[in-house]
Amino acid sequence: MRRNELRELIADGESTTLEFKRKFTSPEKIAKEIAAFANTKGGVLLIGVDDDKRIYGVKSEKEEIAQIEHACTFFIEPIIEPYIEIIEIEFKDVIVVHIPESEYKPHRINGSPDEKPHDKKVYIRQGEESVTASREMVRILQSRNPDSKPLTLSIGDKERGLFAFMEKNKRATVKDFAALVNISERRAARLLVRLVRAGVLNIHTDSTNDYYTIVERI
């Protein structure tokens, strides 16, 4: 990355694909940000830049890079290997961490040694933040792996009722669907995940829960 490209990134501000950190805080927090990018669309993490776009730089780039690599190796499962570079700007060193979108989602954050694999948290990017993925979102991430099982889908009365509801209301949640067709929320969630996997619905995450919309056809 060139210096002028870094300036443009900083000027654009934080987004779904860009995060600023004034300094390395803890391996868990850095692992959370990196995993969230890998689980979503990929992105860039800048260390040495504050939220207000001020450039502070880092004191020891070698030490900070070693900490980033440690976080990626021991706090993220499966391991992520980002591309890291150091860019000098305003006579200060900024660490630029490039995280591509992963083919092997979801990447989970290692917590306590007694934690079971499926209890480990999964994060995704939502706007300028990294947020905990819902169970439905985790299932969708898993289904997008290249080695996931092929999907078979049939459209019945429940699905047709859902589509009619969504045509009128523009969106639906798991609770909406469950109440609409009188099934458990667990079953409703599974059906919705299958429809997302089939490319029929989109899943969205807001500050309270997930909701679904019909995929618009061109």
Keywords summarizing the entry:
Arc Repressor Mutant, subunit A, 22% strand, 4-stranded mixed β-sheet, Methyltransferase, Cobalt-precorrin-4 Transmethylase, Domain 2, 218 residues, 2 domains, 4-stranded antiparallel β-sheet, alpha+beta
Tell me what you see in this structure.
- This protein has 218 residues and is of the alpha+beta class.
- It has two domains: 3-133, 2-Layer Sandwich (Methyltransferase, Cobalt-precorrin-4 Transmethylase, Domain 2); 134-218, Winged helix-like DNA-binding domain superfamily/Winged helix DNA-binding domain (Arc Repressor Mutant, subunit A), CATH 1.10.10.10.
- 37% of the residues lie in helices and 22% in strands.
- Helix 6 (174-181) crosses helix 7.
- The two termini are 36 Å apart.
Q: TL;DR of this structure?
A:
The protein contains 7 helices and 10 strands.
Topology:
Elements (H helix, E strand, L loop, with lengths): L2 H10 L5 E4 L5 H13 L3 E5 L13 H14 L1 E2 L5 E7 L2 E8 L8 E2 L11 E6 L2 E4 L2 H9 L13 H13 L4 H8 L3 H13 L3 E5 L4 E5 L4
Helix pairs in contact: 2-3, 4-7, 6-7
For this structure, what is the CATH class of the largest domain? Alpha Beta
Described by the principal axes of the CA atoms, the overall outline is: elongated
> How helix-rich are the residues, as a percent range?
25-40%
Could you describe the largest sheet, including whether it forms a barrel? 4 strands, mixed
